[in-house]
Design a protein that fits this description.
Chain B: Belongs to the IL-10 family. The complex is a heterodimer of chains A (about 200) and B (about 160). By secondary structure, chain A is mainly β. Chain A contains one helix and 16 strands. Chain A starts with 11 loop residues before the first strand and ends in a 6-residue tail after the last strand. Chain B is built from eight helices and two strands; from the N terminus they run E-E-H-H-H-H-H-H-H-H. The chains are: A mainly beta (about 200), B mainly alpha (about 160).
Chain lengths: ~200, ~160
C-alpha cells in the first residue's frame, strides 16, 4: 500500500530466451485473484541508450498483452545491445517498470543444428533442410561412404525446399550433414548428425 | 552472404534490404514534410566525386553526422510509433556499420581522407544553409538517396 492506495507490484524475474533468432521475453506473472492483468513491453536499442536515453519504444506485439511473455523478435532489428522493460496494468492501476537486468544482444541466440531430410529421386541425392526463416543459410557437407572419400560442400540459401546435391552411382552409399549460418550475427550452429542413404543396383 | 565493401573497409552482419524496408515504411510521411523540393543536400556531384578508396571515410563521416545530429534532433519532432520503430532499426544498424568501419590511417592516405572529408563538408555546408527543422526533414527524407548510394558497395 502507498498512502492507503493499493499499488500494483511490478513484474519480476525478467529474462530472454533466444533460439535460432527467435527472442522471447518472459517474466513472473503479477497475480491479483479474480483479476486479469495486462502487461506493456518497451525497448531501447544502443542508439536510444546512447543518444536518447529518455526514449523507450513500445514493443511491436506487446503494448498490451495478457500472457507473462512477449515475442520481441520484430523489435530486435540490429545486432546491438537492447534494454527491455515491462509493467503491469489493472484497470487504472499501473505498476512501476521492471527492466531486464542485463541488456540483450541477439548475437547470444542459441543456434541449434538444423533438421535434415535425405531422400533420393531415382539416382538423384536430395536434401531438404529445416525452414528457419530468411536470416539462415546452410552449409551442407556430403560424401560417398567409403574409405578416402572426398567431402563436398554446398551452400544452400534457404530451408524448406528440396535441393539436388549429386547424381549417385548404383550400389553406393552417401552420407551428409549440415549446419546453419546466420549472416546478421556472423555465427554458425554445430553440425547435425550425419544421415546416409544407399542406392540399389550393382556398384560400377 | 552479402557485405558492404567501402574501399578496403568490410561490414558484415547488416542487411541492406532491412534498412530499405525500414525507411520505406515511413518514406512518404517523412518526405511529405519537406517543402524545399528544389534543394538537395546529397547532391549527385558530391556522391559521384567520392572514389572507391574514399568511400570508407566518407560514409563514416556521413553516418556519424546522421546519428549525432540528424536523427537525434529529428526524434524529438515525432511521436509516431511507426517512425520511432523504423528509425530505431536504421540508427542501430548504422551504429553496427560505424563500429565496423576501421579505415587505415597511413600517411599516404592523407589526400584520400582529405578529399572524402571535403565531400562531406559540401553536404554539411548545404545542411547548415537551411533552417534547422527544414534541414533535418530534408536530410531524413534523403535517406533513400543515401541507401541507394550505399547499395553500390553492397556485394
Amino acid at each position: 500500500l502507498a498512502d492507503g492506495v493499493a499499488v500494483l507490484p511490478a513484474p519480476q524475474n525478467l529474462s530472454v530466451h533466444s533460439a535460432n533468432m527467435k527472442h522471447l521475453l518472459t517474466w513472473s506473472p503479477v497475480v491479483v485473484p479474480g483479476e486479469i492483468i495486462y502487461y506493456s513491453v518497451e525497448y531501447q536499442g544502443e542508439y536510444e541508450i546512447l543518444y536518447l536515453s529518455h526514449l523507450w519504444i513500445p514493443s511491436h506485439w506487446c503494448s498490451s498483452t495478457k500472457g507473462p511473455q512477449c515475442d520481441i523478435t520484430d523489435d530486435i532489428t540490429a545486432t546491438v545491445q537492447y534494454n527491455l522493460r515491462v509493467r503491469a496494468t489493472l484497470g487504472s492501476q499501473t505498476s512501476a517498470w521492471s527492466t531486464l537486468e542485463h541488456p540483450f544482444n541477439r548475437n547470444s541466440t542459441i543456434l541449434t543444428p538444423p533438421k535434415i531430410k535425405v531422400t533420393k529421386d531415382g539416382f538423384h541425392l536430395v536434401i531438404e533442410l529445416e525452414d528457419l526463416g530468411p536470416q539462415f543459410e546452410f552449409y551442407v557437407v556430403y560424401w560417398r561412404n567409403e574409405p578416402g572419400a572426398k567431402e563436398h560442400v554446398q551452400v544452400v540459401k534457404s530451408g524448406g525446399i528440396p535441393v539436388h546435391l549429386e547424381t549417385m552411382e548404383p550400389g553406393a552409399r552417401y552420407c551428409m550433414k549440415a549446419q546453419t549460418f546466420v549472416k546478421a550475427i556472423e555465427r554458425h550452429s554445430a553440425f547435425s548428425q550425419a544421415e546416409c542413404i544407399e542406392v540399389q543396383g550393382d556398384a560400377l | 552472404g552479402q557485405e558492404f565493401r567501402f574501399g578496403h573497409c568490410r561490414v558484415q552482419g547488416v542487411e541492406l534490404q532491412k534498412l530499405r524496408k525500414a525507411f520505406w515504411t515511413v518514406k512518404d510521411t517523412v518526405q511529405a514534410q519537406d517543402h524545399n523540393t528544389s534543394v538537395r543536400l546529397l547532391r549527385k556531384e558530391i556522391l559521384q566525386n567520392v572514389s572507391d578508396a574514399e568511400s570508407c571515410y566518407f560514409i563514416r563521416s556521413l553516418l556519424k553526422f546522421y546519428l549525432k545530429t540528424v536523427f537525434k534532433n529529428y526524434y524529438n519532432k515525432t511521436t509516431e510509433l511507426q517512425i520511432l520503430r523504423s528509425f530505431s532499426t536504421l540508427t542501430n544498424n548504422f551504429i553496427v556499420i560505424i563500429s565496423k568501419l576501421q579505415p587505415s590511417e597511413e600517411n599516404e592516405m592523407f589526400s584520400i581522407i582529405e578529399s572524402a572529408h571535403r565531400q562531406f563538408l559540401h553536404f554539411q555546408g548545404a545542411f547548415k544553409q537551411l533552417d534547422t527543422d527544414a534541414a533535418l526533414t530534408k536530410a531524413i527524407g534523403e535517406m533513400d538517396i543515401l541507401l541507394t548510394w550505399m547499395e553500390k558497395y553492397y556485394q
